[in-house]
Write a structure and sequence with these properties.
With 264 residues, the chain is of the alpha/beta class. It is 44% helix and 14% strand. The structure holds nicotinamide-adenine-dinucleotide. InterPro entries: Enoyl-ACP_Rdtase_NADH (IPR014358), NAD(P)-bd_dom_sf (IPR036291), SDR_fam (IPR002347).
């Protein structure tokens, strides 16, 4: 079976390099026959994204900074003029000032709170609205979240608050667009070593802790997020919307460290 996405076209937002979760997703979509377009944030990222896009035969590679609504609108104008319509969208974008991804959440500044919310939460609502305009035949929208939305994770701070808002947005958008057969879901990924992940203070300790204490006793890889994304973006998940799907080796179901951890 290698044609789950045959005849489907979609946009992948958030590839920074070949460690990006969005890249893990893009490769799986391509392997199943999807035609992909990519966005990149600024020319420095563009130089890394273009060779990756080549590897998956993508022709449409457009700049987009989600802090700028005109930039977002222009991406969808390009998609409409080149393709007419799209079938799916992947939003794998997040940002907060790394100086506030440590210490107390209570010390979050107003400016960084707003910026984090705009980039990491509101941008999904904005791109969903633009994408829905060019999804006349229904479609599937996917964003990426983290369990710091529902449980306190050290140093995740304002990103946890933004992810809580993002997950609520998934539910409201799913309800808004359900009548048009546009499904909206999120994957809550376990920790992955990426550029964004490296911005969180002491991330490596979280990584090894979750590795030792998850039911599967390992961390997940971007190809595993890609597999679950493929399911949610394809007809395999035609009855699934408004869902937060965990791809985290089961860490979120645990209530305490393993006995091995406690005894050592
Ligand atoms: P990454 O650094 O590879 O990707 C983050 C992307 O966000 C980059 O491509 C960056 O260009 C983009 N971005 C940031 N600000 C932007 C802006 N203003 N406009 C446009 N794009 C912007 O890291 P990643 O870990 O692959 O992150 C992808 C998503 O996965 C994020 O939402 C992140 O919060 C989420 N996530 C990451 C982890 C993890 O441990 N790495 C775990 C769960 C969820």
């Amino acid at each position: 079976m290698n044609e789950l996405m045959k005849g489907k076209r979609g946009l992948v937002m958030g590839v920074a390099n070949d460690h990006s979760i969005a890249w893990g997703i893009a490769q799986k979509l391509h392997a199943q026959g999807a035609e992909l377009a990519f966005t990149y944030q600024g020319e420095a990222f563009g130089r890394r994204v273009k060779p990756l896009a080549d590897k998956v035969d993508a022709r449409l590679i457009v700049p987009c900074d989600v802090e700028d609504s005109a930039s977002v609108a222009s991406v969808f104008e390009t998609l409409q003029s080149e393709w007419g319509s799209i079938d799916f969208l992947v939003h794998a974008i997040g940002f907060s000032d790394k100086n506030e991804l440590k210490g107390l959440y209570a010390d979050t500044t107003r400016d960084n709170f707003v910026r984090t919310m705009v980039i990491s939460c509101y941008s999904f609502t904005e791109v969903a609205r633009e994408a829905a305009k060019i999804m006349p035949n229904g479609g599937s929208l996917l964003t990426l979240t983290y369990a710091g939305s529902v449980r306190v994770m050290p140093n995740y701070n304002v990103m946890g608050v933004a992810k809580a808002g993002l997950e609520a947005s998934v539910r409201y958008l799913a309800n808004d667009y359900g009548p048009r057969d546009i499904r909206v879901n999120a994957i809550s990924a376990g920790p992955v070593r990426t550029l964004a992940g490296a911005g969180i203070a002491d991330a490596r300790h979280m990584y090894t802790y979750q590795q030792r204490n998850s039911p599967l006793r390992r961390n997940i890889g971007i190809e595993e997020v890609g597999n679950s994304a493929l399911y949610l973006l394809s007809e395999m998940a035609s009855g699934v919307t408004g869902e937060i799907h965990y791809v985290d080796s089961g860490y979120h179901i645990t209530s305490m460290p393993t006995l091995d951890e406690l005894k050592n």
